[in-house]
Design a protein that fits this description.
With about 200 residues, the chain is α/β, with parallel strands linked by helices. It is built from five helices and seven strands; from the N terminus they run E-H-E-H-E-H-E-E-E-E-H-H. Helix 4 packs across helix 5.
Length: about 200
């Protein structure tokens, strides 16, 4: 059995394989499975977008594999939260082809004069699973923090270098990948999904 994960992001796939290590399933991308999938993510929530991606893969699969997809983003309360300037639009903020170095700098500029008490934020991840039977399951988890005042760290990717974790005193790009996987939104969501599947005997 295998899990086809609807992502082309190599950094995300590496995290997924690390978090799901020990599961008796081969984890491959849609491209690895010979599936060309790039649906328009026009949902109104992380769950909807995760399902859009999972359904696009499932419809073109052999229906014998488990299909998974996730949608995640940085929700900054000051900038409107989940449906604000980033949130469900995080990957598309300033355009898909804009580097995260530029995106992170732009977020810090928008937050330049915002006091610490108003810099609250969270990473959110929804994971959608479609079983060979067609049954759909979604879960959501988050990682709380705040927006840093400067870019820091080289261990993460995306918005990690500007996401400050008060309990660690550093950004999520400063902590080790192992520590991040234990507390991250994606790590929590994937472990939650593993538990749901285990309870279902899968």
């Amino acid at each position: 059995m295998r899990i086809i994960f609807g992502t082309g992001n190599k950094n995300k796939l590496r995290e997924i394989r690390e978090i799901m290590a020990g599961l008796d399933y081969e984890i491959v991308t849609a491209a690895d499975a010979g599936i060309d999938s790039d649906p328009e993510e026009n949902g109104e929530s992380f769950e909807e977008n995760a399902l859009i991606k999972a359904r696009a893969v499932f419809e073109n699969s052999d229906r014998t594999s488990i299909v998974m997809a996730d949608d995640s983003g940085l929700c900054i309360d000051y900038l409107g939260g989940e449906k604000g300037e980033l949130g469900i639009h995080s990957a598309r903020f300033m355009g898909h082809d804009t580097s995260y170095e530029k995106k992170n700098a732009a977020v810090l500029e928008r937050m330049r004069d915002v006091p610490d008490r108003d810099r609250t934020a969270r990473f959110v991840c929804a994971v959608a699973t479609i079983l060979p039977s067609g049954r759909e399951i979604t879960v959501r988890e988050s990682m709380e923090g705040c927006i840093a005042h400067e870019i820091s760290g080289a261990n993460g990717f995306g918005y990690d270098p500007i996401f400050f974790l008060p309990e660690f005193g550093m950004t999520s790009a400063d902590i080790s990948p192992e520590s991040k996987n234990l507390i991250s939104h994606r790590g929590k969501a994937l472990r939650h999904m593993r538990a749901v599947l285990s309870e279902a005997g899968i």
